[in-house]
Design brief:
The complex is a heterodimer of chains A (292) and B (327). Chain A contains 15 helices and no strands. With 292 residues, chain A is an all-alpha fold. Chain B has a single domain, classed as MetI-like fold (Orthogonal Bundle). Classes of the chains: A mainly alpha (292), B mainly alpha (327). At the A-B interface, α1, α2, α3, α6 and α7 of A face α3, α5, α6, α7 and α8 of B.
């Protein structure tokens, strides 16, 4: 965790220049940031310590460290929140949504980035409109549409929804990145007899790896964490995702903080692990978006 | 992830052989490539069609239909008739809806200002040589990847009214017991308590975007300013700050849009209460539709929200883009 940084190349240059000249303020800043981090982490401290306490300990000393810590809450939360099936549902919906977003987003952006005038520009603006439009405006007509198709309570209904709703942001990220790439590679491939599809899959798509990492993490966070849509589309279907499962679980055991917080820890773990693995792509992706 | 990109980037003279299983190629071998015939060539516009179809079905068509429903008395079942601007007139007489407009704006301003100020300070703090910078970046950004609903439940404990627990417990322990509050139960505090929770969750998100901006500031400019005798504040004000404009634009737009649309956190933490003190446009339109069955009225509220978001984003974009400079 400490060995990988959220840093890109320019920062290393900053460091090298500064390292020659150690500065007084450095230790004060380090201490100050540590204090900020401690204040910032208080809710996380409460989350982890309460998850490790039994109800008696929570009542007696809510703020102290758990003594002795108990792991019982985690086992109980796992079964009573039926997290296993919720995790599977979330994984299926998130996985297929990401796959479609990567394929449709990268191919769409390839066209939009290379045709930056006329129809291409118009379509780009049309896609960007989707970032601004609140989904609530289309919420009810879309609900009717999904209902009429018989797709309420299905995985593919959710995957279609997330793909459509996240395409604007995905296309925005991919288009900014592709515009910064030299078009020469793909042109060379076309001259050598590739068609557009081959030039894209063999030359362009592999070059998009860094921004694909960003697309994966930002969309995974959104889809995995979304609460409202699965509540509406999946309620009572047995295909509820993790946030919906946690919502009803918390409602049921609201006074038992140890149990509830153990459930929250288990539910948040998968996305935190994905974040830690892919975090270096986050800042690179934003840096690319800033240029675009 | 994918196959090593070196094999595909190093060669500009002829199409390189796709190594391994690059997504989409399925590991095609070069011999097969030669057999591809000219008449199978894909036109360029075909690339955008699938994305456009899905986007049209999920976003464009429903949004347009929403605009239409906003002028009807539809209840969700059976037919409906067009009633002109009646829904909007109703909105002007609806105290709860009007209060939610005010709440939404106050919440948005608080979140935009405080979240970005904290995000900028955090970014400046971790864009230095301090040893803990990588760990701090991860710590500050981590809440942004957790579900807003779960964050709301965590903060319900932080805000719990018991004196020995959560925030009240801390205040008591450090001798500030007089500040103890029923943070979510007090109608004049609930909205601000929700704002603090949202700021805590997304300050790290703003930080990362500012950090991306800071890393685009050339070291040479800082060195030159230093040689010219500029102090820390002057270097920030006249070198860093103007070059941060693109990051600021993105940050302000994302937090404004996010603030105006805020739903999950409010729904899970207060459900608009106590009373109507923390209702936002999003919670009102949700209740109108799915609790009271007034779908026409609900989409009218959604249309007002959409116009708010569009107007604010356009003004911001025009104003902020105008003051952007490049290094």
């Amino acid at each position: 965790m400490t060995t990988t940084t959220l840093a890109g190349k320019p920062e290393r240059r900053t460091e090298e220049k500064r390292r020659r000249r150690p500065r007084y303020g450095s230790y004060a800043l380090e201490l100050g940031m540590a204090v900020v981090a401690v204040v910032f982490l208080f809710p996380v401290y409460a989350l982890l310590t309460l998850a490790l306490k039994d109800p008696q300990q929570i009542a007696d000393s809510p703020l102290s460290l758990p003594a002795p810590p108990t792991l019982g809450n985690f086992g109980d939360a796992w079964t009573s929140a039926s997290l296993a099936s919720a995790l599977v549902n979330s994984a299926i919906i998130t996985g297929f949504s990401l796959l479609l977003l990567i394929v449709l987003g990268s191919t769409g952006a390839y066209y939009l980035a290379r045709r930056a005038t006329g129809l291409g520009y118009g379509l780009y603006v049309l896609f960007l409109l989707g970032i601004v439009l609140p989904f609530q405006l289309g919420m009810i007509p879309l609900y009717k549409l999904v209902d009429n198709l018989g797709w309420l309570g299905t995985y593919h209904g959710m995957v279609l929804f997330y793909t459509g709703i996240q395409l604007p942001f995905t296309i925005f990220l991919y288009t900014g990145f592709i515009r910064a790439l030299p078009p020469d590679y793909a042109q060379a491939a076309l001259i050598d007899g590739c068609d557009h599809r081959q030039a894209f899959t063999r030359i362009v798509f592999p070059l998009l790896r860094p921004i694909t990492g960003t697309v994966i993490i930002l969309n995974a966070v959104f889809v995995w964490n979304d609460f409202f849509t699965p509540l509406l589309y999946l309620g009572g279907s047995g295909k509820e995702t993790v946030p919906v499962g946690v919502f009803s679980f918390v409602g049921q055991y609201v006074s038992d903080y140890g149990l509830v917080f153990a459930g929250l820890v288990l539910a948040a773990l998968p996305i935190l692990v994905v974040f830690l693995v892919l975090q270096r792509f986050v800042i690179k992706g934003f840096a690319g978006g800033l240029k675009g | 992830m994918n196959s090593p990109s070196e094999t595909t980037t190093s060669d500009g003279s002829r199409p390189p052989v796709a190594a391994g299983t690059t997504a989409g190629t399925g590991g095609r071998d070069p011999a097969r490539r030669k057999r591809v015939r000219r008449d199978q060539t894909v036109p360029p516009w075909a690339f955008v069609v699938p994305a456009l179809v899905v986007y049209a079905v999920v976003v464009l068509y429903p949004s347009l239909a929403g605009v239409v429903y906003a002028f009807t008395d539809w209840s969700g079942i059976g037919g409906f008739s067009f009633i002109g601007f009646d829904n909007f007139r109703t909105l002007l007489d609806d105290d709860r809806a009007l209060e939610s407009v005010g709440n939404t704006l106050m919440l948005t301003v608080a979140v935009v200002v405080v979240q970005n100020a904290i995000g900028l300070l955090l970014a400046l703090g971790v864009n230095t040589t301090i040893r803990s910078r990588s760990l701090l970046r991860v710590i500050f950004f981590a809440p942004a990847v957790v579900s807003p609903v779960m964050v709301a439940f965590l903060w319900k404990y932080v805000y719990n009214p018991e004196n020995g627990a959560g925030l009240n417990g801390i205040l008591g322990a450090i001798g500030l017991g007089g500040l103890r509050q029923d943070w979510l139960g007090n109608p004049s505090l609930a909205l601000w308590s929700v704002a603090a929770m949202v700021i805590w969750q997304y300050a790290g998100y703003s930080m990362v975007i500012f950090l991306a901006g800071l890393q685009g500031v050339p070291v040479e400019l800082h060195e030159a300013a230093r040689i010219d005798g500029a102090g820390t504040w002057q270097r920030f004000r006249y070198v860093t700050w103007p070059l941060l404009a693109p990051a600021l634009t993105i940050n302000l737009m994302l937090s404004t849009i996010g603030g105006l649309k805020l739903f999950d956190q409010v729904y899970a933490a207060t459900n608009g209460g106590p009373g109507t003190s923390s209702e936002t446009l999003s919670t009102v339109l949700y209740k109108e539709a799915f609790v009271y069955g007034k779908f026409g009225y609900s989409t009218a509220v959604a249309l007002v929200l959409a116009l708010f978001v569009a107007a604010v984003s356009l003004v911001q974009l025009r104003y902020l883009r105008a003051r952007e400079v490049t290094a």
